[in-house]
Amino acid sequence: MFTIHRSTRKAALLAAVTPFAMLYAGAVSAQTAPEGASTDAASIAQQTQGTEAADDQAGNDIVVTGSIIRGTDAGPSPVSTITTENLDARGINTVQAGIQALSSNNGPALTNSFTANGAFASGASSVSLRGLSTNSTLVLFDGLRAAYYPLSDDGSRNFVDLNTIPDDIVERVDVLRDGASSSYGADAIAGVVNIITKRSFQGVTGRVEAGIAERGYNANQRLSLTAGTGDLDEKGYNAYVSGFYYRAEGVQSKSLPAPFNSSDERGLCGDRTGTRVCGPNNVANGLDANGSFTNGFAIGTGNFYVRPANATNTTALGRYQLLNPTAGCRVGTPYNPTAAELALPINATAPGTVCQVDTQNLYGNVTPDQERFGGSARFTAKVGDTSEAYFQVNFQQSTASYTGVPATIRANAPAGILFPQYSTSQNATAAIDPRSAILALPVYICARGTATCNATNGTLNPNNPFAASGQVARLVGTLANEREFNETRSRVYRAAMGINGTIFGDVDYRADATAMHTDLRRRTDGYVYIQHLLDVIADGSYNFVNPELNSQATLDYLTPQNITNSSSDLYQAQFTLGKALFALPGGDLRVAVGGSVFYEAVDAPSGNPDTNGPTQRYFRQNAFGTSGNRTVTSAFGEINAPILDQLTLNASGRYDHYSTGQSNFSPKFGAIFTPIQQVTVRGTYSRGFRIPSFGEANALPTTGYVTQQLSSIPAAFLSQYSTNPGAGQICTANTPNNCSAYITAYSIGQTTLASPDLKPEKSRSFTAGIKFEPIRSLSLTVDYYNIRKTGAITTPDLSPAIAAYYAGQAIPTGFEVIADAVDVNNPTARPKIAFVRSQLINAQTIKSEGIDFGANGFVDFGGVKWTTNLNASLILELSTTVDGVRQTYVDTLGNFNLTAGSGTFEWKGNWSNTFDFGDLALTGTVNYTSGYDLSAMDQGDAYKDCGQAPAYSGCRVKSYITADANATFKVNDKFSFYVNALNIFNRLPPIDPVTYGAYLYNAVQGGEGIFGRSYRAGAKFNF
């Protein structure tokens, strides 16, 4: 990351301020512009973010997100607005992508790229306001709750999938950047995202669009069509139907430029340690920086190797060799180690020919194939003179799929539910199923189901080259002709209806009901079913010597398709009544009360249970799953008191009771003070809560993997894995090229156990802001927020258990550490950790604090109209406190438990400028996400101590800036063309060798920037 020196900072500040100074001068000048020139900032509310949310309803009242009172101009909470016009101008083609781009969305957001990298909630996207994780932001549709995605983020956090948003009928998205439990109940600790759909539509409108990256990948298309009839004011009704189709092709790592397209990291070099160090060559069986084979034999390639062992499979007797030397390397490039290389201790088991396989290049994925389509219909009608009723239905199908690595045959099974995990990579231990054994081809084969197979009832195994000598053949490799395939398909059905208006002359009322159901199908193929693997080995029905000769029936038996169906439901009914009681100096004192009842349920069974035994399941498919249901009844109210023209006070509260026994009252107080016309000061104080999610309270064992850096492993433990200690080539954190690949490619499986006894999280939050409008066409806002969660649900800090294992000490109470299989190249070394098991607890206090900045302006110069919009968020603190020990994460890669190692960005923002020449509009947008230190205090590091950085990397990941451009040409009132140029300077994300969810870059920071420069073109029509 470059350092801005003092003079440069002044220049940067001047550059930032100059456009707004020009805007102010131009706007003042425009006050005397010819009649017809727009100078009202409200006129750009549908083009910019950061304005107060408003929507015309029955009676032309204004409804503010976060309030149940009709008729108020704005609430005391900060609200940002995203409109479809704003997204179009910025070249963002889905609403979910627009929400992900929010400056207040930070850290543990879930993007679509995570699907292709093993996300628990595969196929989904979610938002994380204030960096407080996906389950602390409430997502609503027209002010009503939505069904959870059936799968949980990291197996524990329930959330609403942003991919279910019906893009074609969205009017705007209001983002309430404040706690809102007093209005909406649980989950609104960090804020609320309210998707507001079109109330009515007349005519026919549509869009055709296609795009592709400059390098020829990430092709995407979008089609939409909406047709409506009826004028609510003249005919008393409106009805419209709408449909859309969206597709984006998946991108594989091999399509990207270096270094993102290869497992070879030797080109990543740094001198942070005082000596120039380059990254390891993680190509399986690859060569080191000197062109030598010194990393040990890699056993997990798509080539079968065997090694003789005694008949009881307790003692290995020689080196590995290709099972079929004639076929050579079916996958990868052959390399024949020299005699000197084979003599190295690290290569004691290496064969005479190894196959060099670049796993990232051959099998890595960046994004999945995505396809979404759906339809919506709405009918709205006037009821009498003062009421309006509506009925709306939506359907949407979303599919995401990708093909991954070759099928695994030698591994530890995923965490067990009813039984200890089974292993084919190691013999039984206290934590491993007692029937486990290192995978080996037997001497004799017999018909399937034979209890004991020997010389009397069996035949010599044709797959085992050592059978005639009475030796088993220990087998390593993967199924090159079977690759793991993953697909999620969600179908969402939603209906809503309601009526609102005025009764008894002065009582406002609103009644709404909604029902939403999600069907999710997970389909996997190419995963090895453990018992079937043992079967085909025992009866010899799978041809390991010539795998290409196996029948499709044999392949289907070994890797049967697995389909798991899950669902979620949400049913809600709510009503509100409001009335002006009496007049105050500043206006009417208004009160509103309401009630709500909703039922929510998730049924997501494990896709890989061990109900029938530890071998009756698949390798590499997580066992996670959850189910549960509850009914919530609520009562709420609000008072809005304009005490003076300059001062309005607001108070609200909500009581929620859960059928599972929990209850909570959430109050909120706010004030708006306008000392002069140009200045508005606002503030809020609230209490909130978050109920334990179904995933946290009821989930099956869930395992996520966290990469271990050499810097996190004690020197004494690392030294066991030195490539050539006799020659002084000792494995240390600063000499990664002296380390076995077994320890450099190392992840710990963190297995989380749910707890039904968890208590709700509680929160306290307050905001304080100022809005300055020196002229009508310029608005500047600054909002401070401070959120404190207590009893936060989390996994305990695992570092004491990990440190104890490395030191050979007793594991602390509450943890279980399961060792991995030994390194075949270092059989006497203490193995690395495979899994650490722990249970969720209410332990932490989490604090999030920061400042939001906004600037919106508009100037009509006569021949050209200039609109500018800037949004930025600064996180001052994101910290956790456990047992009095505070850990802070701003500007670092942590918190791993909260953000899954995707970082806490100190700054995030965007700035858009549009120049409208009448028939031609040009928009430029700059997007900025700050860099961060490669450390995380919950991983045992001190704050910003570079503790996670490999020796070949700098301490910091650089900031990331991209620029987008859009041009729209209006042919006539009914037809227009547009062209987007995204990431116009072709800047790829900065290198991050540590983060989770993508290879060598941060998927949350980098987003779609990884595709480089991209283009998109489309046409819109409106009749």
Description:
- With 1023 residues, the chain is mainly β.
- The chain has a 22-stranded antiparallel barrel. The chain has a five-stranded mixed sheet with strand order 1-4-5-2-3.
- A hairpin with a 2-residue loop joins strand 38 and strand 39 (885-888).
- Residues 1-62 have low confidence and may be disordered.
Annotation keywords:
1023 residues; mainly beta; 5-stranded mixed beta sheet; 14 helices; 46 strands; disordered N terminus
Give the secondary structure arrangement, pairings included.
Layout lengths: L5 H25 L48 E5 H7 L4 H6 L36 E5 L2 E2 L24 E7 L4 H4 L6 E7 L5 E11 L6 E10 L7 E12 L2 E2 L16 E2 L6 E2 L26 E5 L11 E2 L10 E3 L3 H4 L11 E3 L2 H5 L1 E3 L1 E15 L3 E22 L31 E2 L2 E2 L13 E2 L11 E5 L1 E26 L3 E19 L4 H10 L12 H7 L3 E23 L2 E18 L21 E16 L5 E12 L4 E14 L2 E12 L3 H5 L3 E6 L7 H4 L22 H4 L2 E7 L7 E15 L2 E17 L4 H9 L8 E4 L13 E7 L1 E20 L4 E18 L2 E4 L7 H4 L7 E10 L3 E10 L2 E2 L22 E2 L2 E13 L2 E8 L20 H4 L7 E9 L1
Parallel strand pairs: 2-5, 32-36
Antiparallel strand pairs: 1-4, 2-3, 4-5, 6-7, 6-46, 7-8, 8-17, 9-16, 10-11, 12-13, 12-22, 14-15, 17-18, 18-23, 19-22, 20-21, 23-24, 24-25, 25-26, 26-27, 27-28, 28-29, 29-30, 30-33, 31-32, 33-34, 34-37, 35-36, 37-38, 38-39, 38-40, 40-41, 41-44, 42-43, 44-45, 45-46
